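Case study.
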Amino acid sequence: MKAILSGNEAFARGAYEAGIQVVTGYPGTPSSEIITTIGSQYNDDMYSEWSTNEKVAMDAAAGAAYSGRRTMVTTKQVGMNVLSDSLLYSVYTGAEAGLVVVTADDPGLFSSQNEQDNRWYARLAKIPLLEPQDSQEAKDFVVKGIEISEKFDTPVLIRSVMRISHSKTIVELGERPEVPKEVGKFPRDISKYNCTAMYAKEMHAKVEQRMLDIEEWLESSDLNKIEWKDTKIGIITSGVVHTYVRDVFPNASVLKLGMINPIPKKLIKDFASKVDTLIVVEELDPILEEQIKALGIEVHGKDIFSPCYELLPDRLKEFAVSANLIEAETVVEKEEVAKFKDIPSRSAVFCPGCPHRSSFYVMNQLKVPVAGDIGCYNLGSMPPFNAQHTMGAMGASIGVLHGMSIAKIPENRVCTIGDSTFFHSGMPPLANMVHNGSRGVVVIMDNSTTAMTGHQDHPGMDWMVTKERAAKKIEIEPLVRAMGVEKVKSVNAFNVKEVKRGFEECLEFDGPSVLITKGECIFVSRKPKPAFTVNTEKCIACHTCFRVGCPAVVLSEEKFEKNGKFKSRIDPTLCNGCSVCSQVCPTGAIEAPEAGKRSLAE
Amino acid sequence: MKDINFLVVGVGGQGTVLAGDIMAEVGMLAGYDSKKSDVLGLAIRGGSVVSHIRWGEKVDAPMSMRGTVDYLLAFEPLEALRQLAFLSPESTVVYNEYKIPPVSVSSGLTSYPEENELKSALEATAQRVYSFNATDTAVEIGNVKAVNIILIGAFSAFMDVKVDVWETAIKKFVPAKYEELNLKAFHIGRELMEKEESVKA
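After joint prediction, the assembly is written out as follows.
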C-alpha cells in the first residue's frame, strides 16, 4: 500500500515497522511530529512520551533499551546538545535491543537559534549515521537503523533536516514484525552497563573496533548507490540534497551516500578514480569533504558552495554556474520581479488572543532589561514591543538574569520563560538564584502548553502526548515556593492592569521573585470569543492600540480630521475577543461585542 | 512528461498547509509521483506560509526553481505578489482578494501595494490571472475557515483530475463534522471558476 507521508510521519511509520516499542523526546521544530504521529496513530503498539527534556529522554531510552525494548529518541538539532551527555555513555554500553536517535537539523534556521550540523555528533560519539533523502528512506532507515544497532550493539544516529521532516513524498508501507510483549528481568551486567573508569577503558577499545567492523560491512552494503552518467563531473552527496543535485546536474554521475559515518573509503576511491572532476555537495559543514581530502583525493566542495544556509536547487545552480560547472541560462526576468522585491514582509507576531501580549506591552513601558528564552514569547523582542533583549538556549534566561545580578547592573531586571521551558531547564538556574542570593524577576509565562512547537504536553499539564492519556499535573506556584522563592505572584495574563501591578510588586522585592502570568494559548482553549469592534465616533486615531502588535488590529479607510491619520479597525475574521486592545485604548473606542454574537474566527 | 509545479501560499491561520496537503494527496491519487515542501514562518498565526507541490512521473527536489511554477494559488493578494519570481511565463494565478495587512503596515512602517498595481504586476508575469473574494464567500456560507476549500475548488477547475478524486482527498483531511460544509465550499469555488470562459482554454 502507498501513502503520501511527511518525513516525520515516515519516521513514526518506520518505528512501527522496525518493531520499536518505546519512543521518547522533547518537542522541537522540525522534529516534533514524529512523536505526535506515534501518539495518535500507533499508540497501541508503542509507548511514547514527551520527556521533560532531551537528556531525560535519552536516559529513559537507554534504560528501556537496556531492558530489552527497541527504542527511539527524537530531538531537534540544538536538543542534541542537551541529549549528548547521555548519548555518549550509551555508545560505550550498547544495549539489549536496538536504539536509534533521530535528530532533525535546521539548515536555513527556520525556527532555531543556530545552524549547527549534527553530523559532527556521529563523529564525536563514534556511531553510525544514516541520512535519508525523502520519506521512503526516512521510514526504511529507521528499520535499517535498528538492524545495524542490534548487529553491532551500538546506538545509531539518523539525521533529518527540515526539508525531510516537513516535506511529503510517497511511501510504500510495510508490516510490523512480531515483537515480544514482555521482557525478562533487568540484566545485572556491571561490566557492560556501568561506565566506571575500569570498565569504560575496555568499552572505549570496543567502540574503536566496532567502527572498523561497521566500515568493512558498509563497503558491500546497499546503503550507498552510484548513478553512472557522464563522467566529466562526479558528485558525492547525501540526504535531501541528492534530490536537488539531480535537478541541477541531470547529466552528472552521482555517488549517493545513505550512511555518512563511517564513510565507505574504498567505494569513494573507486568512484573518484572514474570521474574527471570530483565534487562534494553537502549543506553546512565540510564533513564529507574533509574526510575525502584526508584520503588524498582531490575534491571540490566549500570552495564552490557556501557553508551557510540551505543549498536549494536555485542556489545550488547559482554556485554551479559561477564555478563553470554548468552553463548559465539566459533567462530575462520580468521587470515586475525586481520592482516588487521589497514588499512588506510578515514579521513574526503573537497570534490574536495570545496571553503573552499584555506582558510585553507592560515590559515595553517599564523599560527594564529582559533576558529571554526559547518559545513564542521571544516574539516580544520584535516591534512594537522590542522588550526581550537576549535569547540563546533553553532555560538560559534565568541564568543570564542571575549574571546581571552578579554584575550589579544599576537597574532591576527581568527574565521571561515559558511553562514548558521552565520544566525543561529552568528549575536548576532558579535554585541557583535562590541559593546564591540573586535579585530579579523571573516571569513564568504559563500558557498551559508547549506552544511554539505545536502544543505538546509538559509536566504542568494533565495529559500525555494525546488528550486521551491522563497524566499527573505539577502546579508551578507551589513548586517555586517549595524551591525557596519568597515572593511569588500569579496574575491573569489577559488583564493588563493586573499584569502591570504584578510586575511593579515583583520589581520592588529585594531578592529573587517569580511572576506567573496565567492565560491559555488560543490553541489550548480553542474557544475564540466574538470580535471586538471600533466605535469610529470615539476613535481619535492615536494608534495606541497598535502598540499591542495584534494582526487583527488594522487601519481603517476613515481618517480622523484633527490629526489626518486613519482610524483603527478590527478584522472580525481574525479577532479572538481577548480584549487587550480595548484595555489600552484611552478613549474607550474599542467595544465589546453584543451578547449572543458568534465568532467568525471559530 | 514535464513536471507540474504548484505553489500554494497564504497567511498562517488561513488553512494553507491543509490546502497544500490536499494538492499533494490528489497528485498521488491521480497516479503521479507527488511531492510537497512547506515553509512556515516563525509565527503560528500571521506569518507567510509557502507550500511547494510537484506532480510528475518521477519528481526529484520537493520544491520548484524560480521561473518554473505553472500554477499559483494565493490565499492573500500580497502573498501572491511575493512569488512573482517563481512564475513561469505560461503560468496561471488564482488569488483571494481579501487583504490581511501585515502588522508593519498597520503601524505605518510600510504600505500595502495598490490593488491595481498588484493585479497588473501578476498579469505581466503570468499568462492568466483570476481573483475573487473567497473570504467573503466563506463568511456567506457560514464559516470563514472554509476559505481554503473554496480556493481549492477554484483551483481544481484548471486540473485534469476527476471531481471524485478531489472529494476523496478533501474528506481525508477535514474533520467529519465539517465534511458537508467543505464539499459545498469546494463546489462553490469550482463553479465560480468554471464560469470563466478562458479557464477551458
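Observations recorded in class. Residues 4-200 of chain B form a domain with the Pyruvate-ferredoxin Oxidoreductase; domain 3 fold (CATH 3.40.920.10). The beta strands of chain B are 4-11, 33-40, 48-56, 69-74, 87-96, 128-132. We will return to this complex in the next lecture.
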